[in-house]
Write a structure and sequence with these properties.
mainly beta; 7-stranded parallel sheet; 1 helix; globular
């Protein structure tokens, strides 16, 4: 196996930040961390990295963006990362793989695309959180081996909807999960009474073109505007900004909080009664605007 960044020695804390990694090779890991001899209370922080993994069948498979193996139950935060693959989501490989034996795993404000699984948390993590993540064109979204995941403000648009393809891990979902969005509308759909179903990727993302995906949201993606819940004071995982570090104003669902003017489309008619100065005749005038801009 090959790794661009690997850490496997005892430490109190590991931080991997602001790296650009272009990983090419079969059975490869862009970032690999093996936490087997770490001190109690250790932390792992992986944030603001740009990772591209070349996973092209049949010669380049089993490729991972971030791979963490934790036997001691450390605190793991993975956030504001762009983790993309050049594959089509068919072959084994995860955007984020985390084996956590008793740790707390927090995933937030990540953009992930084109892996077999967007993220997979193995073993028996104590707690798992998925807040404000955008996962696109993976066979499975964010899944767990056993521990329930608390999903909030997460959008997952899997490659396909069916038996072998799934957005949310409904078998391991914390009952407090809510305000999510999925392409699925039945099985594996976004959990929560306020969640959205049947979301169309091309309608919300700037680009879903293969190898040129951009998971920032469009200025016409009204379905997920303001559709999230404010977690800035969340007792488990307070998040007040987005993937780019922009403030969450009225929270959108997904890693990106749209900044700018939103274009809404509407058609309506206003009838105005105008009296002329010459003959007092009545004239009906129709005014039909089609769009307006609402600043955020």
């Amino acid at each position: 196996a090959e790794s661009a960044i690997m850490a496997d020695s005892a430490a109190q804390a590991i931080s991997i930040h602001n790296c650009t990694i272009n990983m090419d090779g079969d059975d490869s890991y862009a970032v690999a961390i093996y936490a087997m001899d770490y001190a109690s209370g250790s932390t792992i922080d992986i944030y603001e990295n740009n990772i591209l993994v070349h996973e092209d069948a049949p010669t380049k498979q089993n490729c991972y963006g971030i791979y963490i193996y934790d036997e001691l139950g450390v605190s793991i935060d993975v956030y504001r990362n762009k983790i993309f693959s050049t594959g089509d989501g068919t072959f084994q490989g995860d955007g984020i793989y985390c084996y956590s034996d008793g740790g707390i795993v927090k995933l937030y404000n990540n953009m992930i695309a084109n892996f077999y699984r967007g993220a997979f948390i193995d073993a028996t993590a104590l707690e798992i959180y998925s807040y404000y993540n955008s996962v696109h064109y993976c066979c499975q979204g964010i899944f767990s081996n056993s521990t329930d995941i608390l999903y909030k403000n997460t959008v997952i648009t899997s490659k396909l909807v069916g038996l072998d393809y799934a957005d949310f891990d409904t078998a391991h979902t914390d009952p407090a999960s809510d305000y999510n969005a999925s392409i699925a509308s039945a099985a594996y759909a976004a959990p929560g009474a306020n969640s959205l179903h049947g979301v169309v990727p091309a309608d919300i993302y700037l680009s879903v073109v293969a190898d040129n995906e951009n998971l920032h949201i469009k200025n016409t993606a009204a379905v997920i505007y303001d559709a999230g819940v404010d977690v800035s004071a969340d007792p488990n995982l307070p998040v007040a900004d987005d993937y780019d570090g922009d403030a969450r104003v009225r929270p959108d669902i997904g890693a990106d909080e749209f900044q700018g003017a939103i274009t809404h489309t509407a058609t309506f008619t206003i009838d105005a009664i105008i009296q002329t100065a010459t003959d007092a005749s009545i004239v009906m005038a129709a005014f039909t605007p089609t769009t307006y801009l609402r600043g955020r």
